[in-house]
Fold this sequence. Notes:
The structure is a single chain. The chain is mainly alpha-helical. It contains eight helices and six strands; from the N terminus they run αββββααααββααα. Among the domains are: 7-108, no CATH class; 250-286. Strands 1-2 form a two-stranded antiparallel ribbon. A two-stranded antiparallel sheet has the order 3-4. Strands 5-6 form a two-stranded antiparallel sheet. β5 and β6 (236-240) form a beta hairpin. α2 (107-138) runs antiparallel to α3. It is extended and about 95 Å long. It starts with 6 loop residues before the first helix and ends with a helix. 5% of the residues are buried.
Amino acid sequence: MSQPISVGCVHAFLECFQSMLSIASLEEDAALLMFGAPARLYQTIGPLQDPMLSMGADVAGQTMAIVRVIGAQKAGPPEGPDVTFGTRSLVLDEAEEADVNDSTFSVAEKVTEDVKIQAAWETTQQRANEFVSLAKQDGWDAAVAEFNTLYGEQAKSEPNDPNVFKLDQFSGLQRISREQLEVLAAQTAGNPASDLILSEARVQRLFVEKLYALVPADVNAVPPLPLVTAFKPNQSFYCLKNLSVNRVDQQRYGMMKGPLLRREGAAQTESLAVVHFNPDNVLKRARYRPVRKAEPAEDEQSEQQPEDAA
């Protein structure tokens, strides 16, 4: 009978995975470890176990593992469309055994999916324009009801169908500056999921900027609605019903200036800490040099040889 996996055990395996990504052969793509030395080939990592359970004397029933990195290869373009490789990782719970078909990456299948998405782009745009035309003619609620009648069943059977639509409500969206992305990159450095976190933040920034650009600078709302706007990072068309901007006036700016300055100062401090306590920078500031045993000069060795022979 399988046992539930604790949070501490999952955390231990995440730290192990982060350590494996720090191997030197990955060069600039290697993860940066703030605490601990980078991993090396054929170096034993572990044993891994729940840090809370490891305090006890009885280790029976604990999830343990010993890991060794036997090879590392940098990410790059595939050699051809027939390339496949397994993506199945370590399964901690036997009850959650992954399907073998779902743990195989195929370049051909990925290219096929991309071609289907590209082919469905024009169909999605046509449906978006059709919805806006109905909304302008009969009203928003009537257009939603009509689309539910026409394409509602397709949404239930095939969520990725280009005719599928859904209602979203976004409120309180804030613009994301480049400085905030830099701080986020510094905070997630070495995190195995850092690329995913940064990618989501960049997509969110592009989406907010897309909406913000639709509102003229001298007004707070867009009067000619509904309208259609395309957003390719999400592979979607948005039919906008209402769009407004809550601009900051002088009074609100005066109230927000202090907290924002403190938050910006804290963010800069966190970024500087990552750079300041980087192991390479610590060694550079301390002018650390490894101690090496001095080797005798060649002339001294030649003078000693006759004496030894005598």
